[in-house]
Amino acid sequence: MTTPAQSETAKNDEATDADAQRADARQEEAAGAQLSTAPREELTGGPTLGVIGWFRWFWRQLTSMRVALILLFLLSLASIPGSLIPQRMVDDLKVETWKEKNEFWAPIFEKLQLFDVYSSVWFSAIYILLFVSLIGCIVPRTWQFVGQLRSRPPGAPGRLTRMPAYTTWRTDADPEQVREAALDVLKKRRFRAHVVGNAVAAEKGYLREAGNLIFHVSLIVMLLAFAAGQLFKSEGGKLVIEGDGFANTLTQYDDFRSGALYDKDNLDPFWFDLKSFDATYERSGPQKGTARTFEASVRWGKPGGKEQDAVIKVNDPLDVDGTKVHLLAHGYAPVVTVRDGRGKVVVDKRPIPLLPVDGMITSSGAIKVLDGYRDKDGKKDQLGFKAWFVPTFGGHEVSSMFSQFPGLDFPVLALNAYRGTISSGSGIPQNVYQLDTAKLEQFKDDKGEIFKQLLLPGETMTLPNGAGSITFEKDIKEWASFQISEQPGNGWALTGAVAAIFGLAASLFVQRRRVWVRVTTGKDGVTVVEMAGLGRSESPKLPEELGGLALRLYEQAPPAADPEPEPEQGAEPDAEPKGGSKSAGGADVESDSAPDASSAPSESSDADAPPQPPADTAPSAEPAESAGKADPHHTEVSAEGAEK
User: Distance between CA 56 and CA 345 in Å, rounded?
Assistant: First the structure.
């Protein structure tokens, strides 16, 4: 029968055990704390502090890593339209052509700013929110990581057997010597280690958090580089015919775009002349017409500097003090001569660049005679020609002709002639490659049909009613289109991208882990060594690493033989205790059962011989489930050593 005093004692014991368990849990939590700089999730309700509360809640959400990843994904999605839809900042002509072909969608796309994606309001909003989110997420984590670097690894928890990886053995070495040896072994393996009480605490893998922070800082660098490139960039295009040149001044560009903060007076002074353009094409097979060589030979220089020769290829631009000259496209410029109604030459062997409309360089354009022309009566007038050119004539289609090869194998020039007012002198700019026929009258032949003609090199088209003539000269020049650009943020963007790759690799493949080595003196006076490891995430490499560290320490602190238990009265001296067994290291494994007096003596017992552990026997790191059940004073050896 249980007395009240015994019941009270039992309740006190249960309360003491519960307090001890809670204390152990707190120690284990402290041991695993700060293995990451990620902020803890706070399970709180909605804000109840009015405007300030809502602002704090919004700031916590915005600076969370989850929202940063969502914004990064949205930024990637927002960039897709800029790759599929023509952009004004790249090519205004393509935008206008697309709008003419898609009259229904053009107003919708204009309202959605899809022709100016990278400068649109919605793209800028995602960009700025991502920038703020990354900064708000990185700054506190950086300070926390700096604090971890300045601090020391925490002391060992109360029960090392509950760690994911654990091993233990007994040794005759002095505890202080074992601790010094453990400290030396851990430091040689690049652990940050120090002695805390009766244990050595060590930590490794700081490169994981450093890589994580480097990755996110690199994202900020790339965002800043992108912003700087948009604000301070300059970009323009120029079509240059063989024999002509270009000077880097604003008036020389065919089109020019710059960032909001770019100073147009800071254009780098340089020039270049296009000496020749060389291109070869595949003549047979499924890739017929594909360019094999595509390069422009130029001569360039700076004012007062030495002239130099260079070859500009695709993806191999000419770099002049940070300004790059890229080769974009090429085409043909038929050379024509125009005479007026009195036979006077008004256009003398002028190359007329025509723009390609397909991969075989079927080209179209306009020839305009604005000044100097007079008809047969001496009256001033203007002439215009719609022109189509094919380098290798392949035949006629419904209302046009086509080329079957991009090389100059069979060049043909087709012309339609007009007269009237092309330019009124009002100063309104016109597209040099298009002919506005609103105020023009098309020439007709004697039958009243549209006057048009196909010309081979050297042939002449004579206009009706003595209006003059146009000759297609045998000389056909080529032209090349160049993009002259200055992007100040490209170097930083490349640096950020490379750093982001290395940072991401470190954060994915480096594991943050801690190791403790506790050295105590058992009740029998023998030193007990316990080793345990804890990682930020579960990994099969942690037990392997702990086993390797234990093997190093095992060599300096070899196992000790357990003392032979004294036989009970009436038992033989050499009798082995019931349930006892020899370990691979030569030490008896303790048993909880009492020795049996009736046990038969073992003739092969070697209890009196000094134990000699095999050379390949070492302690093994066991999972926490099995390690937690073992007595910390048991000698644990690997299965491989036991078999040997």
Answer: 79
